Amino acid sequence: HRFLHSFPTRRSSDLATSTKVVFWDVQHGHATYIKSPNDRHIVVDLGIGDYSEKNSCFSPLQHIRYEYGVTQLNYVIITHPHLDHIDDILNFDALSPQILLRPYISKEMLMAGCRDQDKPKLEKYWEIHNRYNQPISTSNDPNNLENYGGLIIRSFVPNYIGTNLNNYSIVVVLEYAGIKIVIPGDNEKSSLDELMERKDFKDAVSNAYILLAPHHGRESGYNSDFVSLVNPSLTIISDGKYCDTSANKRYSQNSSGWEVYKNGTSSNRKCLTTNSDGEVYVEFGYDNNQKRFLSVNI
């Protein structure tokens, strides 16, 4: 199905400017692709796999390269270097990313408890981490709105000190046409509590249309104050099929609902999960009449 539906939308003929987002089905993991209004390419996290195609080796990076025709990524954000967020790291260099944002994690912490089969990917991550050490040019700076066609990309890092890599996760907030999407990595309740003490963070995440559930929708990442502040219309959960600590019901109860299209028909949904709904395709921006829109397809 993926090859037939790159960015399905019922309004493709009348769009003037938009941001396009794919939340990939990468089993237990996370990977998101974003195309800015001026055709810059952004990736958040590097999970692999695909339940819907029964392909545990599916690479979003290879798909972006060979099916979408993307020859270079402008911006890659790795929220934190747990394997389910960097599994696609061996394909990283093939897309020659210009900018890499990641939290600082020592090599000792990165490799702690590493299995032999995981070592090549973690070593590759560390090599890339050390290589991306040059200043960002003005023309590539994600903080310059003109560089990304007016797409605002904000990032926040908890001031966490400890051994739980989840709580080092970068929180990414996308905003265009006044429509926000919040991608919070695997932050758990304590690091979200700490971030919630910052006014700039609260202002950035408040009243977003879409929330990617922290920590794959698990109870450990559920923070009621954070979810209330985000106040999502739709929550998306990127997770595997088996999770005994799921907070899916709580996210559904605290999301107001949005029209979601599938095969030409629509239904009001409060929560989507990649393990049952597959990839989630989001497009938002202005149509030719300068009216805002948000379209969600599965």
Which helices and strands, and how do they pair?
Blueprint: E1 15-23, E2 32-35, E3 41-44, H1 60-66, E4 75-77, H2 83-86, E5 100-101, H3 107-111, H4 119-131, E6 152-156, E7 171-176, E8 179-183, H5 189-195, H6 199-205, E9 210-212, H7 224-230, E10 234-237, H8 248-253, E11 258-262, E12 265-269, E13 271-273, H9 274-277, E14 280-287, E15 292-297
Parallel strand pairs: 3-4, 4-5, 8-9, 9-10, 10-13, 11-15
Antiparallel strand pairs: 1-2, 1-14, 2-3, 6-7, 7-8, 11-12, 14-15
From the alpha carbons, calculate the radius of gyration and give it in angstroms: 18 Å
Instruction: Indicate the percent of residues in helices.
Output: 10-25%
Query: Mean pLDDT, as a whole number?
Result: 92
* Count of β-strands: 15
The total of helices stands at: 9
Shape: globular
In N-to-C order, the SSE pattern is EEEHEHEHHEEEHHEHEHEEEHEE
Indicate the proportion of strand residues: 15-25%
Low-confidence stretches: 1-13
Largest sheet: 9 strands, mixed
Order of strands side by side in the largest beta sheet? 5-4-3-2-1-14-15-11-12
Structural class: alpha/beta
Spatial gap, N to C terminus? 10 Å
